[in-house]
Amino acid sequence: MNTRNRIIGMFVLLLFASAMLFAGGQGEQQAASGGKEVITWWALSSGGGAEDPRQILREQIIADYEAQNPDVTIDLVMLDNEAFKQKIQVAIQAGTPPDIFHSWGGGVMIEYAEAGMLRDITDEVKNNLSNRIGLGPLGVYGYDGRYFGSPYDMGAVGFWYNKDIFAEVGVSVPETWADLLRIVPQIRQAGYVPIALGAGDKWPAHFWWVYLAMRMGGQEAFNRAYDGRGSFADQPFVRAGELLLQLNALNPFQTGFLGATYDDQGALMGNGEAAMELMGQWAPGVQAANSVSGEGIGDALGWFSFPAVAGGQGKLTDVMGGGNGYVLGKDASDAALDFLDFFLQEKYNVELVDVEGIVPVVAGAESALEGNANLIQIADAVANAGYYQLYYDQFLPPAVGEAVKDAVAKLLAGVSTPAQTAQEIQASWQANK
Amino acid sequence: MKTNTLTKPGTYKTLALLLLLIGPAFLLFLLFVVMPVVQAGYYSLFNWNGIGPLTKFRGLQNFGLIFQDQVFHTALINNLKIVAISLFIQLPMAFGLALLLGRNKFRGEAFLRSIFFFPYILAEIVTGIIWRFIYHPQFGVPTILSKLFTENGGEIGLLGDPSLAFGAILVVIVWKYLGFHMIIYIAGLQSVPKELEDAAVVDGANKIQVIRHVIIPSMKSSFIISIFLSIIGSFNIFDVVWALGQGGPVHSTETLVTYLYNFGFRRFSFGYGSAVAVTLFGICFVFNLFYQRFIVSEGRHGKN
Question: What are the annotated GO cellular component locations (chain A) (predicted)?
Fold first, then answer.
């Protein structure tokens, strides 16, 4: 072989080797653990870092499972809320979703399911999970009669308030929107932030508009807008914006709330600087994690449901909320399904109440709420809801969810009117349904 | 007899060696640069959610929508503002610093250089988090200053105010990249022949005249590279802006790349997002061509 051929040969070899580098990724999964099956699990952290109690509990559950199933290894990845949303989109787009991953059900999940990225577990849900978990909560993870996952938590968004501040200022829990408007200036006068809001993250602000729309129009208005008999530009939705502006005019939120994150919101509550926040069942944990003491305000924390609005069609028992749960990626094995089933035991659902502040969905686990008056109130609100609305940003298609959040932020910033807000949302719904 | 250069045995070897050396890099370039650009161009013609099959052909409609979108205009203007701030404030400041700190004239120069260079070493996202604290409306620096020095000073929420947020971000950008350009200029300064400066001084030039007529012309290539990097960097800026407010409040701090992320990725509108990416690529590409053709080659001639 002469020099020239040798060099060309080397070049071909090099090309081949670099091609192998790319192909190499595929075989990795089975080879890495010596015949063991590896299940990847993406879960949400509470922002507590290495000491994150959510992670500690999950690692414990994994250890329990691996002890019983020595041929399975579970690879846990804990991610912050926003980081998770970004990472999962990339994974889905690449066609390689993790085996088990966090979900809020609803529109985003449906988008994944329609693209064939999720494993259909309808049989498992019907034959097994539904014996333990109510079909109500499971419904959030279903679509078109098929199920793709299960919640382990199903709660409600409501007002968290600081009882000490309320007592000091001398105000009581507002029962109507007018009451709320009345107490805000009093709390401000006393030197506290009346309401903490992280509108920079947008979704905490969209809760306000959605709840007001629900109180104004009830289920009927939403259904009409959703099925096209009416629209999101109808009177109740416009009125929701007007009411929100009434509140905003009282300067109820902290300075710079339009640029604040949800963590900032939690810190204000957890440090006892703000009197109220509108947030879901997980709020106490986030308040604690972001507070200076690391413990939040403890027993001073109370809960009440979104007040009634005069002249509204919605009932006081109508609830907006959602839960946390897991879905299975398209390539998830039976072992992954088995592990999800293992995770959804009463025992662990009970432990999650303490660690994550969940409202349990597994039968029998509700006993764990004993002594936790706030979570019992939330569980009752969920149980008694005639109309349970999943948060718009999860229920509606992602493009519309983003449009709702953007529109509400503009409304609060004074850039658009209530009518324009409603129009923008309707336009996005028209374009994306 | 004169042999054709291409059939020379030695040239074959050279060619093979060349292929061997650039081959892998070229392959990677094709795979990770050229292919994605071509793909994005293709996707930009569809209404596509990023996960399903490509079925809804839209032609050039996406581009029409982009140019009609008010938020895109804001993003583009913001990018141009970053370019302007970089060219007219950041680079002159960096040059000034280089003149002060690049000539080993006094003790502590190296230390001061490190201080100015330090922000550049920080990860973009860390920079964002640090400055979120500095700007924090409840306990940040502006609030503390206003309470200290004004009569009825209160909390100042720069990042929450649509009219101030972008200005606050511009400060961070200048702070972060100043040191990088300073280092380029310091390196450039060292290539200025000392004899030239001395000669100018002997001829009676003052300091300003030395800088204007000797140093600046000799550092032309440093300016060319720093201006180029500055402009391309300004168009591609993302992390810092994202960490400081995700393009908000109400899209006031949106740049082209945050716009791409907010309106492409987050909404599952990958066709639209691809169209934004293609537009951004087009802007950078045209600028690059223009710059290479007129400025860089000009610079070379100037040197000759």
Answer: periplasmic space
